[in-house]
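Data deposition worksheet. Section B asks for the primary sequence of the deposited chain exactly as it was used as input, without tags or linkers unless they were present during the calculation. Section C holds the resulting structure in token form. Section D is free text for depositor observations; keep each observation to a single sentence. Incomplete worksheets are returned to the depositor.
Section A, Depositor: J.P.
Section B:
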Amino acid sequence: MLIRCSPGSEAAVLLATYDFAHANKLFCFNFVSLPAEKGLEAPISSFISLTSYLLQHAHTSLRNTQYSHLNLLIIRLLIEDQVLCKRICSDESKMAVRLCRQRSPYLPLVRGDRVLAASLLDTMIDGINHNLRRRLDVEFYIVCVGIILRIISHLSRSRTRLNYHWSELFRSLLSLVRFLTTYQADLKSSMHIETLLDDLVNLIALSLSAGETFLPTPAAYDDLFYKLVETGENLVKFRDSYDLGKRPTSSIDTLISVSTHYNQLLEDGASRRGKHLTSAQVAGVIKQGYETLSIQAKEGLDSWDKYREADRRTFLKKMARTTVGDVKTLISET
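Section C:
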């Protein structure tokens, strides 16, 4: 577990957890499925809890950063197994998970049992919200956004409606868009930034085009459009800052066309009434706008590339050195 905000040397076990998760499907199934023993948390509950603490403090030290990346890779391996992903997103996975609440902004506190996918989404959102900096850890954000994409992809394909505070997720994703736009000069030359930009935009586009299949209520779907309309002008700046209009893999034009569609309807509504629209009137315009809205989403928004360990070889070598140091510390303390 964590002492304050840094993992103890016992965290060395996480590298072995990664090795088992990568090589052994039976281990993965048991890791996700084993119930809690009397007086203890279930293994997966403890793991997600630990990950949430790591991700809220991912850049307070090099060890935090490394173990945060390692746990994200473990979660990615679990989510990419379609049998496990189905379980993680279903009611059979419901359990209580104690998530970190040491830093604001705080997500809504949910007590009691929840579907594991909801706890994972909270953990990813906290990772996104609490590690924004000019020297952005792009790889960290690619994995966080990628895990969210894989969960939403499964939910939309299986038409599973997840009871979750989706407004918080979409608020965080659009805040990330604003951050990337504001600090474009610092970030545009970052390695793999194009991958993050494409994944982020395509995730939002997938949510727009397939939201009716996984969002629990029409109000949750309306809220996504409302947030996109609020971000409208910034989307154009975002596109122009990174030349996204020239990237065939980006769905930025889909987002801008939806925002433009609703902004025009809202302007027409305000001009007819001769005053600003109330929030209730804006909500009404969004609902009516579905009738004339055409979302030209790209094919394959719900697809993703399977994990390849070869892509992470350099990181895993560094992780092994850190783990050896932690094991030596453990031995010296016994």
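Section D:
Strands lie at 2-3, 6-7.
Residues 30 and 43 are 9 Å apart (CA to CA).
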